[in-house]
């Protein structure tokens, strides 16, 4: 009888160890929280009642789902994923978490990840995108500024050419239509006087 009890106790220990190993592999940094062997139990060594994280893990079907990752089991203001190195909830069994140093216990409200660590792993943020956009905007602005002076110069040349053409046209029109000179006017007056004298002479001869 004693041997049977020993065997049952041994089997329970083995089963617990195997279960613990399986759960560790299903959680990012499952064995990475210092001093905690069983993240889902009140007793950090394992066995006994579950803590809020363990209860949530059971509700999630003993799987690291996106919903469970985004949950805050211990209500400390950080998600389960943030505390276990998977802030963006993209971890899959067998892959490496976003960070492995500085993780905390997602079932202990007094344990949290340093905000400085989380600030280095922001989800959906690309440090180079803002710089690239700014660089592209600056390049476009510089290109526009470089083009503007050339365009103004072309406009100035075109305007000058138009004004020059207009001036030449006016000068040509003036050359084609010369104003009568005083000499020409005097000559016309003399011709009229001569005709009058001839007419008077003819009248005198007939009278």
TrEMBL record:
Record InterPro entries: S-S_Temptin, Temptin-like
Region (Disordered): 145-188
Keywords from the UniProt entry: Signal
Domain of life of the native organism: Eukaryota
Database matches in Pfam families: Temptin_C
Coiled-coil zones: none
Temptin Cys/Cys disulfide domain ranges (all copies): 18-108
Annotated Low complexity bias: 145-175
Residues spanning the signal sequence: 1-19
PANTHER family membership: EF-HAND DOMAIN-CONTAINING PROTEIN (PTHR34737)
Protein name, entry field: Temptin Cys/Cys disulfide domain-containing protein
Organism: Lagenidium giganteum
């Amino acid at each position: 009888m004693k041997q049977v009890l020993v065997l049952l106790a041994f089997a329970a220990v083995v089963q617990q160890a195997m279960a613990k190993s399986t759960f560790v592999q299903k959680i990012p940094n499952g064995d990475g929280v210092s001093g905690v062997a069983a993240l889902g139990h009140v007793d950090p060594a394992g066995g006994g009642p579950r803590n809020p994280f363990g209860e949530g893990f059971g509700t999630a079907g003993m799987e690291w789902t996106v919903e469970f990752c985004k949950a805050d089991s211990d209500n400390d203001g950080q998600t389960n994923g943030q505390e276990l190195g998977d802030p963006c909830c993209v971890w899959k069994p067998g892959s490496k978490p976003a960070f492995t140093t500085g993780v905390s216990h997602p079932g202990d409200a007094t344990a949290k990840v340093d905000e400085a660590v989380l600030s280095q792993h922001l989800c959906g943020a690309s440090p180079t995108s803002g710089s690239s956009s700014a660089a592209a905007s600056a390049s476009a602005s510089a290109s526009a500024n470089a083009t503007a002076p050339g365009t103004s110069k072309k406009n100035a040349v075109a305007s000058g050419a138009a004004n020059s053409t207009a001036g030449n046209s006016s000068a040509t029109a003036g050359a084609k239509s010369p104003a009568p000179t005083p000499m020409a006017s005097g000559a016309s007056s003399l011709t009229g006087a001569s005709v009058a004298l001839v007419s008077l002479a003819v009248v005198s001869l007939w009278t």
